[in-house]
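The following block was generated as part of the benchmark described in Methods. Ligand: 3-iodo-tyrosine.
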Amino acid sequence: MADFEFPHIPYDPQQYPENEMAARADSFYALLNSRRSLRFFNERAVPEDLMQTLILTAGTAPSGANKQPWTFCLVGNPEIKKQIRIAAEEEEFASYNGRMTEEWLRDLAPLGTDWRKPFLEIAPWLIVVFKRNFEFDGAQKRKNYYVQESVGLACGMLIAAIHNAGLVALTHTPSPMDFLTKILGRPDNERPFLLIPVGYAAEDATVPDIQRKPLEEICVTYR
Ligand code: IYR
């Protein structure tokens, strides 16, 4: 084995016979293909330790130079959720009533969204994801790398983990979202990335009737 300056340890890869591999790939695809972004939540409580496990799962994502440039704020406090809803609705009202282009509004029409965000109070938990653009090392700033990509990957793993647990989520992006920095008192090296309400689906929840692109449209093969 190569000689490294820093310690390396053996890695024991999980491998499966081809038929088992295909069955696992099919069932994982079926699982993730049944995920939908939900806007209608139930108030039913979700245990905090379960939420922590989901966040640990997100934290397994690869990241630039392994800097793990993310902070997940787990908000269950009703008063803070209310503040977040009020601030988000204020921004969204301005967006839907003048800031967003006609084209953008037309593109969103199939989703049936508007400025109202009641789910920010109804969902038992909000995960507010912050990207860490750099780290403070005393007074010195240390760089993080590929922050956008890294945090995006972690959020993908997070929503997969949420779905796997039988819960629902919305990747919500109120814009602009600097109010989250203020409400949650986050430090200067962090910027809000995504606001993810998590919980059980409302009993009468609906989702837009929209489709995923077929393989031919998303995959180009070079044999
Ligand atoms: N941030 C707004 C608008 C919005 C924008 C996109 I792009 C979406 O995919 C969905 C909504 C909102 O959350 O309603």
